[in-house]
Write a structure and sequence with these properties.
Layout (H helix, E strand, L loop, with lengths): L8 H4 L5 H4 L4 H10 L7 E5 L7 H8 L4 E6 L2 H14 L4 E5 L11 E7 L2 H4 L2 H10 E12 L7 H11 L21 E8 L4 E7 L3
Parallel strand pairs: 1-2, 1-4, 2-3, 4-5
Antiparallel strand pairs: 5-7, 6-7
The structure holds S-adenosylmethionine (SAM).
C-alpha cells in the first residue's frame, strides 16, 4: 500500500502528446481489445488505461449498460483520459487515478485488459490485486511489445527505440506474460510482428 514512486517521464511530461507519439501502435491496441471476449452489460477493467485509447473500444463491446473502469497511476495521463470521457459524454467510463497495486475497485469485474503495460505485468502485487477484483472464469487479455528472437538484431534495436520511453525496465521483455500466465487457465499466446509483439488471453480459475 501507499506506493509513492513517480510515473515514467513519458507519462508525466508528455501526456499531452502521448496519443500522437504512439498512434502507430493503434492496430495492436485493436488486436488486444479484439481478443478480449466481452458481453454487453459487463464490467471491464482497463488496467494502465493511460489516456484512454482502449476505453472507447471497450465501451463499444460492453455497450451503454456495461462499464469500463480505467486504472491509471499518472495524474497527467488520467487527466487526459477524463477530458476525453467528458468530451464524448461517456457516463459509464471512469478512471481511478491510483496504482494498480493499491486500487480498490469496490465491485467485482467481469474482465480485465492489460494493453501496453509492461511495468504492471512485471508487478506481482499489481497482478494479485487486479485478479482479486475479478470473478471466477473472467476473461483477461494482455498485449504489447516484446523482444523478438535474439537473432533479429535490427528488429530488436527498433523495439528498444520504440519502447524505451514507455517502460521502467526491459526486465521480462522476452516473456512479458510470465507473471500473469500462472494466474490464469486456458492461456493462449500469439506473437505478432515477427515476435516483437504479442497478444495473450486466459481466464481466471473457475
Ligand atoms: C504505454 S502506457 C499504455 C496506456 C494504454 N493502455 C494504451 O494502450 O495506450 C502505460 C500506462 O500504464 C501506467 N502505469 C504504469 N505502471 C502503473 C501502475 N503500477 N499502476 C497503474 N498504472 C500504471 C502508466 O502511467 C501509463 O499511462
Amino acid at each position: 500500500m501507499g506506493t509513492t514512486r513517480q510515473a515514467a517521464p513519458a507519462y508525466r511530461e508528455r501526456a499531452g502528446s502521448y496519443e500522437r507519439d504512439t498512434a502507430a501502435f493503434q492496430p495492436y491496441r485493436d488486436a488486444v481489445v479484439g481478443a478480449l471476449p466481452l458481453r454487453p452489460g459487463q464490467v471491464v477493467l482497463d488496467v494502465g488505461c493511460g489516456t484512454g485509447l482502449c476505453s472507447g473500444l471497450l465501451r463499444e463491446k460492453v455497450g451503454p449498460q456495461g462499464s469500463v473502469i480505467g486504472i491509471e497511476e499518472s495524474p497527467e495521463m488520467a487527466a487526459v483520459a477524463r477530458e476525453h470521457i467528458a468530451g464524448e459524454g461517456w457516463d459509464n467510463v471512469t478512471v481511478m487515478q491510483v496504482p494498480a497495486e493499491d486500487v480498490q475497485v469496490g465491485r467485482t469485474a467481469d474482465a480485465a485488459l492489460f494493453c501496453a503495460v509492461h511495468d504492471i505485468l512485471q508487478s506481482p502485487d499489481a497482478l494479485a490485486n487486479v485478479m482479486a477484483t475479478l470473478g471466477p472464469g473472467s476473461w483477461v487479455a494482455a498485449g504489447g511489445g516484446k523482444w523478438a528472437a535474439p537473432l533479429m538484431v535490427a528488429l530488436n534495436s527498433m523495439v528498444s527505440l520504440l519502447h524505451t520511453p514507455y517502460v521502467r525496465s526491459f526486465r521480462g521483455f522476452d516473456r512479458p506474460w510470465q507473471h500473469l500466465e500462472p494466474l490464469l487457465e486456458d492461456v493462449q499466446i500469439r506473437e505478432l510482428a515477427f515476435g516483437s509483439g504479442y497478444v495473450m488471453t486466459g481466464r481466471t480459475p473457475r
